[in-house]
Amino acid sequence: MLLVASAWLLIPQKHRWFRPGARLSFGALCWGLNLRIRAHGQPVAGPGTLYVANHISWADIPVLAMVLDAAFVAKSEVRRWPAIGHFAWHFGCVFIEREKRGTTREQAEAVERHLRGPLGLVMFPESTTNDGRAVLPFRSSLFALVEGGGDTRVQPVTLLYRHADGRALNRQEARQVAWTGDDELLPNVIALAARGGAVVDIWFEEPLVGFDRKHLARASHAAIVARMAAAE
Q: Which domain range does residue 225 map to?
C-alpha cells in the first residue's frame, strides 16, 4: 500500500487518474489485511450526498473509500499526523475543529463547498470509535454543518465486522478488531492482519429527508441501530 500510495501522491488532484489511484492504494491495503467487503443496497450517487456511518476502526476509511466516491470529514489534528495527515489532505478530507464553536460557520461553508463539487462526503457522527457492538449517540452539532442545505442528501451507512468465514464476532473478538481508546495504530494494524482477515458488511440505508440537525442525527442513529440489531 505504501508503494502504491507513494506513487499516487504524485498525481495532481484534478487528474483523471487521481481517484482510481486512491482506490488502488486503499485496495492494496484491504487486500494485504484480507478484508473482504460485502455491500448491501446502493449508495446515493452524485454530488451533494452526506454519508453518515458508525465508526469502529481506522479500517472503516479504506473500506468505505473502496465503495464510495467520496471524501471524509476528519478532526483537525489528523492533518498534523505524520504521513497520514498529508495522505488525508491529498485525498480531499475536510478538517474540522469540533471543539471550537467560533469556527462553525467557516467549517459549514467548507463542507458546503465540498458538497457542491463532484464528490460526496463521509462523516462519523459518533466522533470516536467503539467495538462495533453498539452505536454511541450521534453528535447533532456535526449535522449543523449541513443543516438547511436543500440540495444535500443524508444517507446512513452501517458497518459491521465479522470473521473471515462470516461468523459473528463475540465481545472479546470485536474489541480485538476495533481501534478504540488509547490503542496505538501500528499494533492494531498488525493484530488485524494476524487474525487472518475479516468480512466487512456495509449497508446503505434509505436516504433521509429533513433539514433539522437533531432530526437528522436521531433518524440516522435509529436506522443504523435497527440494522445492527437485525444483523445479529
A: 35-231
